[in-house]
Write a structure and sequence with these properties.
18% of the residues lie in helices and 39% in strands. The protein is built from 15 helices and 48 strands. The structure holds zinc ion (ZN).
């Protein structure tokens, strides 16, 4: 039967192709010849290109996918433009046409004949050549085209010019990689790198002859150019003092020169040109072959004082990467100084570009990191877009090794902070690894991390650094500590020798590691690399047995990685023993000896998520508690100490007057499950104590909820004047003067649809217990009485926030309920606030819309202050920070509460006891710190309709703004008679959250 035959045929075919792919790795070869001329007046390139494409695959090819990456800078629809917006970056979106870039003038011919070429309909920086006849396996063809590139300004990404400094990267039409997975066509991205075919480049660059050029490859017939550069190097060496402030461009020479560069076994070609460059040159001998490699650094005056010391950085990088992985196979290596926008530096074969460094240490690490990419990216050409850890992560691992080798006692964080503050903040003791560890932990602790094995574009910006770079460096360092440095070198050399000038996949590396260690690497590849599972062992007990020490260890997380036990005397690690990993509890035997304490991972070699459960002392009480350390302000977590942070503070409001005191809290970095905050204050105004405190427990989950947090806050402040004027008007009046508030709260943060989503949703349940202490004056008896009114408001609220770059918006819906047993009144109300912003080009500027709707579901005689206020509510929940609560004179009475109706000025309306609605528009004025606003509102109070318009002085957007009315249709409000009394200000101190800010934006 035919059907069966077909089935068998298909089966046979699939077996064959499977074996084909399994057995024969293939790789296409692409050789380029490019002639390019730079126009440094119009900032354009005019070029022609010849590509030799050799089909080494077992398949016939009928089309060739091309990368046309300069088009990434063409318009706001490109993948690059979209990624910028997703990352909250609006610079490109609002850039002018003339500052953008593109490729044009394309006329592809294959073997001299015209072919069909179309740009991709979605990504205009990709295209497809349809061949007139298929290219058979083993055959080659020649693609030719002229092309023209308009160079964008250099503030967006990797290709660009800053004046007449040129960074010519990702600039020419280039076939995508065709491999066992088929075509790997991809649009250009800023976050997410590259994948290219190996081959050779023969590139001739024409430009004015006073340009210094750093490029991929060796100069052909370049004696004259090299002599000129060497002469420049001599001059550079003789300069004592560089003129830092002179960064002007000399005029371009009328004479042109053509520099021809050739290089084989590379997969990209980049070049950098600047007339201002100083030059230094040297040579380095490779450790195995003893071959000499020429090194060059090129830099402007801007950071010449750092760059003049940079030759050893490039030389040492070449030496150590060669030593640990395999000798550098090219003749020259260059580092150039460039105003780059895609991070601190960027790598290309033989040439790297380095951004502004500011410090010797940063310049050295950046140069060595980018030079290191010649191995992890250049020679080992993995698919960086899909497996970014294979280049960035393995490179960061080598970077870590380099820093440790060269600076064994370097305390890394010292280099990021002045020495004094390093000591001050107790970060001095952290060694090289601290930056990797912290940048991983900051998200891993909150379960916001992503796995190492993920395509580059799927990471959040924080995880791209914290996981791809840092976690990979940490886990390979862990592996090296476990298997030994010698074995690690053997693995890396074998990886290098097997896959140099090839496209290795993760499994290729895994196979080598497993064969060399003769161990299954499930815990490593499936656990640490391919999941977000965490490593955490806990030390339970120590017992002296007859001829060994028995140490009980428990795996309290979900990676079965090897564990190292250290014996410690006087704070120093004396002995280390590694054990294979396990789940659950194990009794491990340790060589017997008298030690002060035992510690899991005393040398900090494991990527432990929690080091607080790692130590046990052999003597004394509280064997597992670390000694206390008081820490000013805050620090990063120190596993050897129980840190308590403190900060002297002075509070102020009109009722309490000045309140000196102290804030005491546990260390905020990285975030803890249990958090506490205590702030006792002494109130000078009331001669009494005041302050607040909170305690919270976080569950950092990874199911439908990202985080569940149970907290309780308490506070006490004065809310009125304590001394009463016993004037006639107040004889039968009273004033509230102290508020005590206790708020248990349960909050849920819903898991985002994906890690990069800008949409965040929270649900809050809280019970606001308010104790208002009143001082009353009883008229007939002429006696002052204290009385306390207790009130509980139960609240459920839902908050949705979309922080997307151009049009962020938020919705907050609240339902409140209250039963007042003493007065017998009760209410339930529902209200919602919707905010929408259209962001203007300039940071902090935009057009805002705010909409408010509030309605009582029932209202049985509730106090009028629970009603909706047109110019803000009465803040009966005491959530706002007000400088002068219940104050009716002086400037503080003009602080407005931005809730409810949100009017900026007094309307004279009473609190609405049924419903209220309002709308508010505010538009920033470009270039000046002013905004125009207008509001309209209506309430059930006699169905009165109010509106206002005015000018706002924006001192700190959203936080501190002052409002000057232009027109109000209000009734004359109580106690407001002069224009200055209408002026009001918003001071939203609640919006300032330093710890949250620091957690999300530092490192
Ligand atoms: Zn890198």
């Amino acid at each position: 039967m035919k059907l069966k035959g077909i089935k068998i045929g298909l089966l046979l075919f699939s077996v064959c192709t499977h074996q084909l792919f399994a057995q024969s790795y293939f790789q296409q070869e692409v050789n380029y010849t490019i002639n390019v001329a730079l126009n440094d007046v119009t900032h354009e390139l005019n070029a022609d290109e010849k590509i030799e494409y050799i089909n080494n695959s077992p398949n016939s090819i009928s089309e060739i996918y091309m990368h046309m990456w300069p088009n990434a800078y063409k318009n706001n629809a490109t993948a690059l433009a979209k990624q910028f917006l997703e990352n909250g970056e609006t610079k490109f979106y609002y850039s002018k046409e003339e500052d953008r870039g593109f490729i044009s003038g394309i006329d592809f011919k294959v073997n001299g004949e015209a072919v069909k070429f179309v740009y991709d309909s979605v990504n205009i920086d990709m295209g497809k050549i349809t061949l007139n006849s298929p290219l058979a396996p083993g055959q080659k063809l020649i693609i030719t085209t002229p092309f023209h590139v308009k160079i964008p300004i250099g503030i967006f990404s990797r290709l660009g010019h800053m004046g007449q400094q040129y960074q010519i990267t990702q600039w020419y039409p280039k076939p995508a990689v065709y491999d066992a997975n088929g075509w790997n066509a991809m649009p250009y991205l800023n976050q997410g790198e590259f994948y290219s075919e190996f081959g050779s480049f023969d590139v001739s660059i024409s430009l004015p002859e006073n340009y210094v050029v750093g490029a991929t490859g060796d100069l052909v017939d370049g004696e004259k150019e090299i002599a000129w550069l060497t002469e420049k190097a001599k001059i550079t060496e003789s300069i004592r003092e560089f003129n830092k402030s002179d960064n002007s461009f000399p005029a371009s020479s009328d004479n042109l020169k053509t520099l021809r560069y050739k290089q084989s076994n590379v997969h990209d070609f980049a070049w950098f040109a600047d007339k201002r460059y100083h030059v230094l040159t040297s040579e380095v001998e490779l450790p195995q072959s003893k071959r000499m490699v020429s090194t060059w650094v090129m830099f402007t005056n801007a950071e010449a004082h750092l760059w003049k010391k940079s030759i050893p950085y490039i030389n040492d990088a070449l030496y150590y990467y060669s030593l640990w992985n395999g000798d550098y196979p090219y003749n020259q290596c260059t580092a150039v100084d460039g105003a780059l926008s895609a991070g601190g530096g960027m790598e290309y074969p033989n040439v790297t570009v380095i951004g502004t460094s500011g410090k010797d240490f940063i310049l050295e690490t950046t140069i060595m990191h980018e030079v290191g990419h010649n191995w992890f990216y250049g020679i080992l050409g993995s698919n960086e877009r899909i497996h970014p850890w294979m280049d960035e992560g393995l490179n960061s691992f080598n970077e870590l090794r380099y820093m440790r080798k060269k600076y064994p006692s370097l305390r890394l964080l010292d280099e990021f902070a002045p020495r004094l503050s390093g000591r001050f903040f107790n970060i001095g003791h952290y060694k090289q690894k601290a930056q990797y560890e912290l940048s991983y932990l900051i998200n891993a602790r909150r379960n916001l991390d992503q796995k190492i094995e993920l395509p580059a574009a799927q990471y959040t910006e924080l995880n791209y650094g914290g996981v791809v770079y840092s976690k990979t460096a940490l886990v390979f360092d862990y592996l090296m500590a476990y298997i030994g440095e010698e074995k690690m070198n053997k693995i890396m050399h074998r990886y290098f020798d097997t896959y140099k000038f090839k496209h290795p996949q993760p499994n290729n590396l895994r196979k080598i590691i497993e064969e060399e260690t003769e161990k299954p690497m499930t815990w490593f590849f499936d656990g640490l690399i391919n999941s977000t599972k965490k490593l955490d062992y806990k030390i339970i007990a120590v017992k002296e047995r007859k001829d060994f020490t028995e140490i009980t260890i428990k795996n309290v997380n979900n990676i079965k990685g090897p564990v190292c036990i250290s014996a410690v005397n006087e704070g120093k690690v004396i002995a280390n023993v590694w054990y294979d990993g396990f789940y659950g509890k194990r009794k491990l035997s340790f060589p017997p000896e008298n030690y002060d304490s035992y510690r899991i991972d005393g040398l900090l070699e494991m990527p432990e998520i929690n080091r607080k459960n790692n130590t046990i002392r052999t003597k004394g009480l509280f064997k597992k508690v670390e000694p206390l350390r008081l820490q000013f302000l805050g620090s990063v977590e120190n596993p050897d100490k129980t840190q308590i942070c403190y900060l002297p503070v002075v509070g102020y409001n009109m009722n309490n007057s000045f309140m000196p005191g102290i804030a005491i809290y546990n260390n905020p970095f990285p975030q803890k499950k249990l958090e506490y905050f205590l702030m006792p204050l002494y109130s000078a105004g009331t001669i009494d104590y005041a302050g607040q405190a909170s305690i919270a427990y976080n569950w950092f989950l990874n199911n439908d909820f990202q985080n569940i947090r149970l907290s309780c806050e308490a506070m006490k402040y004065a809310i009125g004047e304590k001394s009463l004027t016993l004037g006639a008007a107040l004889l039968y009046n009273y004033k509230a003067f102290t508020i005590y508030k206790l708020t248990p709260q349960l909050s849920f943060e819903l898991k985002r649809s994906n890690s990069r989503s800008s949409l965040k949703q929270n649900l809050f349940l809280r019970s606001i217990n308010i104790y208002e202490e009143f001082l009353s004056y009883n008229y007939p008896i002429l006696k002052l009485y204290n009385s306390i009114q207790k009130n509980t408001i139960n609240e459920i609220s839902y908050n949705l926030k979309n922080s997307k770059a151009l049009t962020p918006y938020s919705l907050n819906v609240v339902m409140q309920q209250n039963n007042n047993s003493s007065s017998g009144s009760s209410f339930m109300k529902l209200f919602g606030e919707f905010k929408y912003r259209f962001v203007y080009k300039k940071k902090g500027k935009g057009f805002d819309i705010r909409l408010f709707v509030g309605k009582f579901i029932y209202n049985n005689g509730a106090d009028s202050r629970y009603g909706f206020g047109m110019e803000g509510g009465s803040d009966y929940t005491y959530d706002q920070i007000l400088l002068g609560r219940n104050v009716y004179n002086g400037m503080f009475q003009n602080q407005l509460i931005s809730t409810d109706g949100g009017f900026k000025h007094q309307t004279g309306l009473l609190f609405a006891q049924n419903w209220l609605t309002s709308v508010h528009f505010q538009s920033s004025i470009p270039k000046i710190p002013l905004a125009l606003y207008t509001s309209a509102g209506a309430t059930d109070v006699k169905n009165y309709f109010v509106y206002e318009t005015g000018v706002a002085l924006v001192i700190i957007p959203k936080v501190f703004e002052v409002y000057f009315p232009i027109y109000l249709n209000n009734k004359t409000p109580y106690n407001v008679t002069t224009y200055t009394q209408y002026i009001r200000f918003a001071l939203n101190l609640n919006l300032i959250k330093p710890f949250e800010f620091a957690r999300d934006f530092t490192l």
